[in-house]
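Aim 2, interim progress. The first record below pairs a target sequence with its structure tokens.
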Amino acid sequence: MTTQKIANQLVELCKKGKWAQAQKELYAQDAISVEPFGWTPRLTKGLTNIKKKGEFWAKNTKVYGMEISKPTIAGNWFTMKMTVDSEMKGRPRAKSTEICMYEVKDGKIISEQFFS
């Protein structure tokens, strides 16, 4: 699958809240995830651990709304802008915006990094 097709599919699945399906279908087993400094680990290695991080976020976050931009492609990389109106357990409701950057290799996402 091309970087463009992976990017388009990721955006569509994320807009529908189908994070687990996106990870299962689009991510490499040895993918890495890098978060901005915050309440989750900065670096997560391996799809199994990325899924666990996502499950933790889903259990501890109420999402009121989400906007995701069209992807921008550059070779094996793509980015998208994500704005989330949410409330994490123990924190006030807030709107956050991140630039999400992904690297693709051999038809799978091998890395994701979020900048806020």
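The second target in this work package is listed in the same format:
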Amino acid sequence: MQENQTKNNRAIGIFDSGFGGLTVMSAISKLLPKENLIYFGDSAHVPYGSKSKKVVTEFSTDISKFLVKKNVKMIVIACNTASAYSLKTLKKVIKVPIIGVIEAGSVVALQNTKNKKVGVIGTEGTVKSNAYAKEIKKHNKKINCFSKACPLFVPLVEEGWNSGKITEDIISVYLKELVDKKIDTIILGCTHYPLLKDTIKKVIGKNINIIDSATAVATAVKNLLEKNNLLKEKGKGRYEFYVSDDPEKFKKLGSKFFNNKINKVTKVEL
């Protein structure tokens, strides 16, 4: 029993190319406040969205190996591009359970759509990979998926421009063609985008379901831990933060994405 509890006290590893994955970490910490969490932001190589599959997979493999050395009990790829490009490879080489944001977001979209028209917005890498459409069609071939890359959304969020006339206008221009397709569900296929959720809802109207992958992933993490009997049962969760570059910037910007104060960020060479 003691050994099992020690096993359960191990942290959940979470990684992203930068800050966006902190929205996933926030959702996990809210749903599972007892869990210890270790976050790695690959700030030296951000963004992943414009990089090749080979390079993103190499970065993701190095980070996952670092997290395994930290004795994590599972890994969450809190990055849509890394989930699209490297999840398959990581599942072969990493010996702990591993999940990505795309599987989780797709399942919730399938549960929500009524007219079988789903929109996906994300970085160029995520949209180019067609990963959401492939995942959704694996479960239901009759779903129509319409994708749109929205490259300006990330800088808007990082500048703190989550609302206001300029942000509304940019969202409107990007999403008009999806709304014209009569979608009833839209997946926020980038971990920065949940911070734009309220403004997106204002622009596209309340009749379109907005799927926030961060919340979907938190639920998937809980289900996986329960299934493997790995839930931590006692105490409050502890959080550790690591980056590949500029810990001060991460600490400052990270507070926009995470629901707790970030006190210490450690730079590591992979």
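Strands lie at 12-16, 37-41, 74-77, 98-100, 117-122, 144-149, 185-189, 209-212, 239-243, 266-267. This observation will shape the mutagenesis plan for the next reporting period.
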